C-alpha cells in the first residue's frame, strides 16, 4: 500500500495534483460560517429569553445546551476538512495518507451529528407538550401520544446509530486507518438509516401540531400566525430530504471524496435549521422586553406608544397565555387571585376555564402627545386627590 500515492486511481490521461488541487473551499467556508453564525445567534437568543428574562431553566434548556456543545464536534471537523483534503476535491488529487484523516473527520462528524439532532428534536417535542397539551388531559390526546412516540423513535434510533458508527469496524481503529486490517460493515447503510429516520420524524413533527392549533380558542388570524410559526418545520424537512439525496448520490458516485462535500454541508444546514426552529418563538419576547420596535420608531422620528395592562409583571412568561402570581383588589372590593404562572396554552382549550369566571383588565395607552397635554393641564389645575384609585395588596 503506497501511502504517498493517490487515494483513488485517476482517469486515463489525468495527472494527480497533490500540491494545489482545484477546490471550492471559499464556498464551503461561507456556508459553514453562515451556519455557525445563525446557530450561535439562535442559541444565545434562546438562553437570553428563557434563562435571563424568564429566570427559568426547563428540561429543554438543558437539551439545548447539550445540543450546542455537541454541535462543535461537526463544526470542528467540517472546518478541518477545508485544509485536508478540501471541499469538492477529486479523490485522485489526494494522497492516501491524507485520505485517512478524512475518514477520521467523517467518523467524528457522524457521531456528534447523531447526538445533536435527537437533542434538538426531543427539546422541541417537550416544549410542544407543555404548550399544546393541557395538564391533566395529556394522556387522552393524540397529539401527546404522537410526541411521545416520536421522542421514543429519536432516543432508540439515536442510540442505535451511535453504537453502529462506533462498531462499524473491528478493531475500532480500522474505521479510519486503512493500514489496519479489519472487518467492517457498509457505512452507507448506517447513513441511509440515519437520514431516513430523521426525515420521517421531521415530516411527523411538521404535521403533528396543526390539528391542535386550529382548535384553539383564538381568532382566525392568530391561529394562522401560530400555524405559520409551527410550519417552519418545513425547513428541517427540506434539509433532511436534501441530505438523504446527497447520501444516495454519494453512494453511487465514481468520485466519493468529491461527492462527500454536499453531504457535509447539507448536514450542517440541517442542524442549523433545528436550532432556528427551536429558538424562533423566543424572538417576540426579546423584542417586547428590549423595546426594539419602540427604539427603531423613535430613531426614525415616528410616534411611539407604550401599552401595558394593569397587573403587568416584568417576569411574565412567553407563550399564548402568561399570568402573574400576585393578587389584587378591584374597585368594588372583590378580591381575585390571578392564574398561577404558566406558559401553557391549556386555558385556550374548551372546558379548561373555570365556569362563570370573570377576568377584568384595564388597558392604558400613553402617547407622547397625551403625556405632554396631561402635564400642561396638571400645571393649570392642581388636583388635590385622584378621582379613582386601585388598591394593591
UniProtKB/TrEMBL annotation:
Localization of this protein: Membrane
InterPro entries referenced in this protein's UniProt entry, alphabetically: Rhodopsin_dom_fungi, SAT4-like
Topology in membrane: Multi-pass membrane protein
Region called Disordered, residue ranges: 369-393
Basic and acidic residues bias locations: 369-380
Transmembrane regions listed in the UniProt entry: 26-49, 102-122, 143-167, 224-242, 262-287
Key words, A-Z: Membrane, Transmembrane, Transmembrane helix
Gene Ontology CC annotation, any one: membrane
Ranges for domain Rhodopsin: 45-288
Similarity annotation: Belongs to the SAT4 family.
Name assigned to this protein: Rhodopsin domain-containing protein
Organism: Aspergillus pseudotamarii
